[in-house]
Amino acid sequence: MVKQHDHGKLAGELAIWFKEEHVPEEGRRDEVLWAVAEHDRGWIDLDETPFWNDAEHAPYSFIDFPVVPKLTFYKRGLDEIEARTPYGALLCSLHFERLIKISGLDYP
Length: 108
Description:
The protein is mostly helical. It has one domain. It is built from 5 helices and 2 strands. A two-stranded antiparallel ribbon has the order 1-2. The radius of gyration is 15 Å and the shape is elongated. The two termini are 28 Å apart.
């Protein structure tokens, strides 16, 4: 099982290779790279003790994790990111919004 925060760290390593035109906001490159690497901070505690999905006989993934606690942990992660970079938190929030939209699920 790949921990979500490890996935985030890998994404951060890959983001180092973003071309300058992919980060057009001058002076924000470090914030963007940090936000990419830290975007799944909310999953750190969840991945230490995964929640078991009895119906699937496997741990919940970030895709099928119950909505209300998922949003609670996402918010906590966003709050931690916002404490360092409000712009980074905005980017992460937009990323989560996109994931929700493409999931086809009905979120509150």
